[in-house]
Structure formats: structure tokens, C-alpha cells
# Entry
Amino acid sequence: MNTFLVKHTGYILILITLFFCVSFSFGQKKMTRKTFINDSTYIVRVKLVRPQVKIDNRTIFFKGQRVSLSGIDAGVLLKEKLRITLGYYWLNNNLSAYQKTIEGVDYDRQLKMNYGSINTEFIYKNTRYFSLGMPLDFGFGNNELRYKNSITGEVQSKESGFVFLTDFGLSLAFKPIRWIGIKGIVGYRKTIFNQVKDFHFDGPFTSIGIYIDVREIIKDVKMFKLKKRYRKNTNQLGTAVDLITD
# Structure
């Protein structure tokens, strides 16, 4: 008996391996077409809440000068239609429109601004390749104006105080790939209240940047895995029939 086992060990191992492979195959739950449709529908469903993060870089046109405003916001997108976020913005630029000369000395007027914001956007058109929206932001914080010597940097005078302003406009997002695109905004900025007397930081602005939709990436990965499982559990003829009869 022992001699028999030694001589036929290879065959025995092959039979055992085949047994477990067959058992494993039958033990796996076969994915039907109905299961595939249900699972794929669940993956691509519209979620009520989606987290949002955006790095913003805006150009404001103020009295013929281009001024850069940087910021970041984070919040949620509700049912693919309403974006609500909280943001923080900062600016530090010289304003060429307010330059002056006193006794032969040139002075620059510097604007520093730091404020928080409540940002909203109603997305009224959303298709495969583009979306249209109407952003409306409210900002509140502090602004400071300084006159300083252009050469020495010495500050001659300073004014500061609370500021409340709003931005509104139109947005366009182009999505050549579903999870990455280019988004641009054209709008107008209006000062509602400013403690710095007779200074209103009003004017048109533009914003353009690249955005990435993380959820679309996750959806694509899940769908790829699901389709791979489905192909393994269906023969080519069955798949062809399904495609023809869809």
C-alpha cells in the first residue's frame, strides 16, 4: 500500500487539486444579469450628500488693475444641484489707482484683506460633458489700507475695519473625462458694507481652474471590478445576446 502511494503521489495531488477547484467554482455565487444591473444601478446612484473641496484663485479687475485673490473652501454638494461650502480668502496687493506723490516722494496704497465666506452654487444644467451654475458668495472679515513709502516701505497712514461683500456670477464646467474637467467663473463683486470710509472693492472677476471629482473615480473603479466579475460568470454568447436585446 505504501509503495502504491509513493508511486501515485503525483496523480493523487492532481486529483485533490481538481476537487478543490471544482468545489470552489460551484461554491461561488454566479452573477446573473439581474444582479449585475442591480449592483451597477446602486453604484451610479445619485447621492444626497457629496463632500466638496476647492482651491480657488480669482482675478479681480479693480480700476483698470488686475488683483489676485486666493482662497479655499470645503462643504457639500446636495443631490448634484446645490453646492454649499465655507471658505477662507486672502489678498495682499498694491493698488496702482491710489498711488500719490507728496513732496516728491512716491507713496503706494496697499490693500490687505482676510475674510471668511459662505459659498453657494445652484447647478441648473448638468450633462455628460458640461454643467452650468450660478454661484453666490457672501464674505465677511477684515480689510486694511496702508499708504507707504515706495522706496523705504515706511507706513505713512493706515485704515482698517470690518468688511461685508458679495460675489455672484455664472459658472461653466467642461468635462472631457467624467472625473476631471476645467471650471471657469465670470462674475461681479459688490461691497455691501465697509468700515474703511469711501473704499469699495467693487468690480468684475474671473476664475478658472482644474477640478477632480473623486467620487467619479471611485465609481469607475467599482464598475470596472463589477464588469470584470460579470464577464467571468457569463459566456461570450450570453453576453452578446444581452447586448443585442438591451
Remarks:
- The chain has five helices and eight strands.
- Residues 1-8, 22-28, 239-246 have pLDDT under 50 and may be disordered.
- Residues 182 and 235 are 41 Å apart (CA to CA).
- The radius of gyration is 31 Å.
